[in-house]
Amino acid sequence: MMRFGCSQLVVERLDPLVNPGVVGTPHTHQIVGGNAFKADMKPVDYDLPSHANCTTCTFSEDLSNYWTAALYYRAPQNGTYKRVQQFENGGLRQRGGMTVYYIAPYDGVSNVTAFTPGFRMLAGNPTLRGAQGESRGICHRCFEGANFEPFGGAPCTGNDTTSLPNHFCAGGIRTQVTFPTCWDGVNLDSPDHQSHVAYATIPFEPYFEPFPTRPITPEQNRGQCPASHPVKLPQLMFEVMFDTRPFNDKAMWNDDGGQPFVFSMGDATGHGNHGDYMFGWKGDSLQRALNARCDNDHCRELLRQTDEQAMACRQPQTMVEDVGDGDWLESLPGGVEIN
């Protein structure tokens, strides 16, 4: 599988998928990827690779954009906010941002279809506040040890929860966003940014065995796509490492012992976490990488920039405001209330 780091591009209130053309969208996002990100990115007409001149991701041919909600700490004493910073994932070197995965089948035979120029999608539901109707593949992992220990198994298994952890996490919190792997083969997008794709019929899409010792059946490997969405896509996943360690102090938690973190859309539960994706790989680079079964952040099929080059790519805010990296905020950006 491909697993690579994408450093922070910008943190601001833009969302060209859900709120195209709007500067100052309802809540804050943390964005990574190519520096062609802007408020209005019309499918196909706005070709990301031709407009970007750098990317925060490891592979220089990946000018896609990936974004998720920002996470904030809310001080129980006065209700002010600070943005929780992200830190690099195990084995990677990056400046904030997130880890991106593209997973191809493990059987060594099956191929998947890379995303098409203009393709975009959304995973999760930012309005969810409870487990009922929860989104698939959206979860949080509490690292009980300082060095990602125990690491745990496949995402969204074991002790992972769809709600934010309710106790101190010595190694921080990793949030996971897992996207559907089945496409209708026609539409690059849909009005809700989800109907043109679908999840396969198993809880977690790939059969998670890095070094299989026995033949892997198609059912184990990818699950079954519904007839309405027959085209198999690569498994796209985000991992965001939130550095909640500075807040592991009883005096900094709520009086009732409850956790003090809230996502930028006013979600203090964690159920509403979500992620957005706009495809922007150059030419057939992603398809070649998937066919070659590229491994982690090294791939002979792709151009790999240095970590320093990736970290140097930045973009100024379009909606210029303090998003919680400076002074303590009296409210969440955009005046969002906890709901």
Automatic annotation (TrEMBL):
It comes from the Eukaryota. Residues 15-281 form the DUF1996 domain. It holds the Pfam family DUF1996. This is DUF1996 domain-containing protein. It comes from Massariosphaeria phaeospora.
